[in-house]
C-alpha cells in the first residue's frame, strides 16, 4: 500500500519496543529484531537489505539479534524519540519498499556532540564523509532524523537537514532517500557547537548540481543545447572542482551572467531551470520593476534586502556557505546606463551603484550568482557588464529547425503519451514551416491547435453535453490552422509585401525578366556564399515603374524567414530621431534571423527630400549609410533592396556607391505593353496592337491605373463584365482615358 509520504510498504504489524542490546549497537542506527522476524522486512530483489517503517515516518534498516524475542523490536533512545514511543510500548511496524531512483545525491547533516560544551574538535569533512558513507550505506535517511555515531573516539549526533534524491526537484515536503556509494555529504555546525569543519569544499565540490547529468528535454528546454553548454563552461565548470584547484589556478568563480535575446526565446525558462538544478538556497526571482518604490531610499533598500540572506550566510559560515541565486527578469528596467534617465531622483543610478557594490565592491559576496535577463542589452550600464560582474553574456536567439523540432516535441509529448496526438501530425514538417518562431510562439501554436481539436467536441447548443475524451485528436489540419492564427514577431511581413503588388506580377518583357533573374541570383548568393554576409541592391527608375513591386516579389520568392519593408508611409509625422530608431530596430531584428531581406522603399522619401534647396535629413542619411555598410553578426546574412526615383540626388549623397549593385527599372516599350495587355485580356484582338502603341514608354503602375479607368466604361459599371471576359474595352474610350493620364 502507499505510505503517508508516497512510499510503498507491506502490511503492518504491532511489535513491542525494547532497548538496543548494547551501547555499541546503539551507534549503528539499526533496529534489531528476532532472527525469526527478520524476513518480514526483506526488500524484494535486494540481497541482505532489510527495511522497516516504524510508526508514521521513521524508516530504519533492520538486523537480527539473538537476544531479541519474537514480536519485539529494539530501538535506541534517539530512535524512540523520533518514533515517539517508549520502551515496552507497542508500535506499528511494516516492511518498507523503496521506490526507484531512491539514492541520495546530496545529504546535508548538522553535527553536534552528544554531550554539548564538552570540547572543541576539528573534523575533516573528507574523512568523515568517507566513514559515514561506509558505515551507513543502504540506510534510509529522512529530513529531521537524528542519528548517533562515533568518530575518532568521540560520540557525535547528526540531524538530517537535506536529503536530495537525484533528479527530484526541491519541494517543501519531507525529503527521504537511501545512502549510496556516490552520496555526497555536506556538514553544518552551529557557532557554539565546538566543532570546526575543515576541507568542507573538497567534500562537496561536485555537489553544486542536484543531478549528475542533464536532459534538457525533461527540463522543458528545447533548442538551447549549445547555449546551455556555453553557460556551464563559463559559469559552473570552475565550481565543480575543489577550491584548492581553483586557488592554484588563480581564478575566481563567475558571479553573474546575462541572458539576452528576443522575447519568448526561453531566457526566463532557462534561468529558472538553472536555479532548480543548483544545490543551494531557493532562487530568488525578481521582476525588475518590483524593486522600484516611490519612497526615497526604499528602492536601494529593496536591492540590499535581496542580498541579506547571502551576507548572513557568508558571515556565519564563510567559505562553507551555500550558493545563493538571484534571478533578475527584465533587468533593463532598473539597470539602465547611469545618466540616461533624467527623472530628477537619480534612483536608477543608485540601483546600479548598489548592485555593483554587492557583486564586486569592497565587501563583495562570493556566494552569490546573479542571473539577469533582458531584451535590450544595449540599455544596460556598461560597468555592470564587465568581468567580475555580469561577465558571462549568452544570447538566447531564435531556434533553428532542429531546435523548433525539440520544442514542439516537448509541448506535444504528453498528448502523444495519452494518444491525443493524431498519427498524421508531422512535427518535422511543422518545424520546417515555423521559421523565425520563438519558443513561446511555438507553444502558442500548440495551444491553438489543441483549441481547434477541443472545439470539435463541443456543441454551442448544449455545453453540458458530456465530452468523449477518446475522440479528442489533435490533427495536422489543426496545426495548419493554428499557423494562420499565430505569426512570428520576427517573420516576413507578407501582408505588407502583398500590398506592394496588388495587381500581382505579370510578364513585362525580357528587360524586366532579366532584372528579376539577376535579383534572385543575389538571393542565392546570400544563401550559399561564405564571403558575402551583406549584399545590397538599388533599384532605380522612373516613378511608378514597378520597383517596389519587383523588390517585394523577390522578398516573397526568396523564402527568407525575415522580410521587412521600410517605407515613409509608416513614419508619417515622426521626428527624424524616431525614424532613425525605427530603421535601426528593423536592422537589429534582421540580425536575429539567419537569413533576412530588408526593402528600403523610396529612399528619397525616407530622407525627407525636397528638390527646392535641396533639403533632406542628414541624420537619417548618415544612419542609412552606416547600416548599409555594417556587416551582420556572425552566422547571419542580410540582403537589402533600395528603391528610388532620384538616382542623381542619392548619388550626390554617396548612396550609389553604398549599394553593391544597381539595376535600372525601365518603363514599358510597345512590345512590353503588348505582353501585359495580352495577359490582362481586356481588349479585342484587333485593338491590342493599337493600345500597345499608345502605351509606349508608359510605367507599369500607370498602365494598370489606365486599364482600371477604361474598364469602368463610358457610363460606368462595366468593370465586372470586362474582367470576366464578357465584354472588351472600347479603344475609343481607352484613348479618352489616356488623355487624362498622360501629362501633356
UniProtKB/TrEMBL annotation:
Signal sequence residues: none
Keywords carried by this UniProt record: ATP-binding, Cytoplasm, ER-Golgi transport, Hydrolase, Magnesium, Metal-binding, Nucleotide-binding, Protein transport, Transport
Cofactor: Mg(2+)
SMART domains: AAA
UniProt xrefs under InterPro entries: AAA+_ATPase, AAA_lid_3, Asp_de-COase-like_dom_sf, ATPase_AAA_core, ATPase_AAA_CS, Cdc48_dom2, CDC48_domain_2-like_sf, P-loop_NTPase
Purpose of the protein: Required for vesicle-mediated transport. Catalyzes the fusion of transport vesicles within the Golgi cisternae. Is also required for transport from the endoplasmic reticulum to the Golgi stack. Seems to function as a fusion protein required for the delivery of cargo proteins to all compartments of the Golgi stack independent of vesicle origin.
Protein name according to UniProt: Vesicle-fusing ATPase
Organism per entry: Quillaja saponaria
